[in-house]
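W.,

You were right to be curious about this one. When I first looked at the sequence I had no strong expectations either way, so I just let the prediction run and decided to look at it fresh. Below is the sequence, 129 residues in total, followed by the output.
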Amino acid sequence: TVPGGGVTKGQKFLSTMQELETIEIPVTMGGWNSDVWSCSRAGFFHPLLWNGIFFPCIALGQIMTRTELDWQARPTNKLVSSLSCTNMTVFLFFWIIMNGSAALMGMVRWQRGQDLGADFYGPIIGLNL
């Protein structure tokens, strides 16, 4: 605590400190501290549930960052694992842009009356597998 009236730079004062009892925080080692259905505890609007449904790459990147894995799911240091979520986000935007451009090309071909055959669907299927 600060003495009454405050302190000035360089001033020395004494303060008592209480002994702390042992503080125990339960930490699950080698596994998850919750089960598969834990997302339902926070209700239907749990952020990771919606993130996993609409942006699974970003959800996976968050999990990889928290478990200290690199983009190839290998254990690594905090600096490299902190980039996992960024890498997955970049991958997601690349995927969205590529599928958007494929949809646009398909729409143009359809409007021109051209066939949407294997030469059109093949790369799209390859991109999404």
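Here's what jumped out at me. The longest helix spans residues 84-111. And, maybe more interesting for your project: Helices lie at 47-54, 56-66, 78-81, 84-111, 118-128.

Coffee later to discuss?

I.
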